[in-house]
Each structure stands twice: as C-alpha cells, then as structure tokens.
Amino acid sequence: MAKPPTPASIDAYLAAFPPEARRLLDELRALVRATVPGVTERISYGIPRFDLDGKHVVYIAGWKKHVGIYPIIGSVSEALAVEIAPFKKGKATLRFPLGQPLPVDLIRRIVDLRVAEITGAEGRPLGHLGDQDGRPEGRPLPKILISKG
To answer: What is the pLDDT of the chain when averaged over all its residues?
Structure first.
C-alpha cells in the first residue's frame, strides 16, 4: 500500500479530516497560535508542526477517533504528570477523544512550558507571554516557572 502524499500546507492537512476532527484540530491550532506570539507553522513528518525560533513547540495530528499533541516529554511531562495522565498514551503522546471538549487550560500550560524550555525562561516569569506581572493571561505559572529565590 502506498503512503499518502505529504500535504502541502497545514490548511491542506486539516481539510482532509471529517468535521469533528477538523473542529478539534482547528481549535488546537488556534490555541497554539494564541499562546505563542510569533509561532511559525509547517508540515513535518506529515503533520502540523509549530516552531518558535526554529525549534518545535508542539506537533498536532488527527486520527479516526482522536486528535493528538506531541511530544510531551521532559519537564512538561514531569511538571504536569497528574493533569496529563488521563490523556497520555505511550511515551510522549496525548490523545484527546473526538466528541469531547479539549482541555484548553491544560493545553495552554503545555505550550507555555514548551516555550519556557525553548527560550530558557524556566524559573522566570514569562512576561512576553502574558500580563505585565508575567502570569500568562491570568493563569497561575506552572511550578517549574516559579523562581526559587
């Protein structure tokens, strides 16, 4: 069986999905874009990839019964272990079933932590991502982002 062709764009990738999966993928895409000013998008490994400063923040993908976000590893996996447990499948995958609302706050926290890893902002408030006091849009900072001094 031949491998399907790689989509030319994220829009082309999303257009290939049925309405319910497409709605959740559109919502994931919008969440990443809203959470990370300056994020760029491209297709990598045949799925949407979101980059900041040339480094991947997250990948998203659609499937028959769920949508996924990848990779959930390192400090993100450690800091959010309890919250991600119901969605974690395999080593680095979170699956969100079709027909259920996305855990929007959790996804924002995941993306915030990935940005902190990329920018080296761990332990410092992320002023460039949120309010003047560094809290991302009124959300509490994840424990990993709170200074210990």
So the answer is: 82
Q: 141, exposed or middle or buried, with CB in 10 Å at 0-12, 13-18, 19+? A: buried
CA distances, 72 to each of 53, 56, 77, 120, 134 (Å) = 19, 12, 6, 17, 24
Q: How many angstroms separate the CA atoms of 62 and 25, rounded?
A: 7
pTM of the complete model = 0.77
**pLDDT per residue over 7-24, tens digit each?**
889 999 999 999 999 999
Determine how many CB atoms are found less than 10 A away from the CB of residue 145.
Answer: 24
For residue 109, which phi and psi values (nearest 5 degrees)? Answer: -65, -40
List C-alpha distances in Å: 96 to 20, 40, 48, 126.
12, 23, 16, 27
Residue with the two structure tokens 């849009």: 137
Q: Could you give all domains of the chain from N- to C-terminal order, each with its CATH number? A: 10-123 (3.90.1150.200)
